[in-house]
Amino acid sequence: MTLTNVAPLTASEIKQLAADWYLKLDVHAPLEEYIPFLAEEGLEMRFPEATVYGFDGFKGWYERVIGIFFDEVHTLKQVNVQPSADEASVQVIVKWEASVWNRPAAKSQRIILDAYQTWIIKRSLNTGKPVIATYIVDSLSYYEGSAQL
Length: 149
Fold this sequence. Notes:
It is a single chain. The protein has a six-stranded mixed β-sheet, with helices on one face. The protein is of the alpha+beta class. It has two helices and six strands; from the N terminus they run H-E-E-H-E-E-E-E. The N and C termini lie far apart (37 Å). It is 19% helix and 42% strand.
């Protein structure tokens, strides 16, 4: 669908979207705070462990992972934006650090990796703001000494 009379997506607003998204993930923000970031229709999110669709799919994934990972830190390393008519393809590299505790281990373990991702960003049909329509984790590159997923 092509939106008419809508400003083209800009690299600066997409970079801000990415920074805000990862800040929310770091603090395990309440679920409703993610609604403005995600496309109302056609949302697809491909994680290493699952592919989910729509906000309900995201909700199930998010509720699961915030029960597993803690002390998270996301550091944006790269956000490359390639705009087209009514969307933008974005290559994201984010350094992700998180702790995980697996029963009955005496201590938690630290995961440190770079996640290579592809996002498709569109303008919200309701607000006109940029939203994530497609979110794909393409690959993970672990740092030396990191625990593994």
